[in-house]
Design goal:
InterPro entries: DUF1579 (IPR011473). It holds the Pfam family DUF1579. Keywords: Signal. It comes from Pontibacter flavimaris. This protein has helices spanning 2-27, 33-41, and strands spanning 45-55, 60-73, 78-86, 92-102, 107-114, 119-128, 133-137, 151-156, 162-169, 175-185. It is α+β, with helices and mostly antiparallel strands. It folds into 2 domains: 1-30; 31-185, Lipocalin. The chain has a 10-stranded antiparallel beta barrel with strand order 1-2-3-4-5-6-7-8-9-10. A hairpin with a 5-residue loop joins strand 8 and strand 9. The longest helix has 26 residues, at 2-27. The radius of gyration is 21 Å and the shape is globular.
């Protein structure tokens, strides 16, 4: 009797775990190189940017606007993203990075120069179809404090728009959004 009960319990647990296992497999399924480049192609173009950056001294977000250009680079293997946004003091902040897909490693890679300390940052990540997003973190994972405490999330929104989040972990391990940029396609007027 005990053996029958254990067998039934095991069968119920396996049946309950099957949907979660399938969902995990579907979530972590890698893209083909062609699918990844098609996805990255949706980022190419000229964009109008609404920028929101967290200002801890004011305990509020600062809102500004700017422009971004995303164009193919290195014979089309990477995208070159250049963003210019106005700062609270009136100056313009320029950010620049390269985003691509490594078919050999089956991951997205973002390379950005950090002007504060002269280092180059490498973030790696995956496509998450259930959230229509690419999430990129340090290769060693997201950790509180230090250089591994940043994560970029590119969220593909309806109408060809894009949301780029930069977030970190706070002392309790919760996400804190440092900045969010809404990208809208810059259309040229025509007659």
């Amino acid at each position: 009797m005990k053996k029958v009960m254990l067998t039934l319990l095991a069968a119920v647990l396996l049946a309950a775990a099957a949907p979660a296992t399938r969902a995990q497999e579907q979530t972590s399924a890698s893209l083909t190189s062609e699918e990844a480049h098609k996805l990255l192609g949706r980022l190419s173009g000229n964009w109008l940017v609404s920028h929101y950056a967290w200002q801890p001294d004011r305990n509020a977000y600062y809102q500004s606007s700017g422009k971004a250009t995303v164009s193919p680079a290195h014979q089309g293997s990477f995208l070159h993203e250049q963003t210019y946004v106005r700062q609270p003091d009136g100056s313009q902040k320029r950010q620049e990075c390269f985003l691509g897909y490594s078919a050999a490693k089956e991951r997205f890679e973002l390379i950005q120069a950090d002007k504060r300390n002269g280092n180059t940052v490498l973030l790696v990540g995956q496509w998450h179809p259930e959230f229509h997003s690419i999430t990129l973190t340090h290769p060693d994972g997201l950790k509180r404090g230090g250089p591994n405490n940043v994560e970029y999330v590119y969220v593909f929104l309806p109408e060809g728009m894009l949301l780029k989040l930069v977030r970190t972990l706070d002392e309790e391990g919760n996400y804190r959004i440092q900045s969010q940029d809404y990208y809208a396609p810059q259309h040229t007027a025509s007659f």
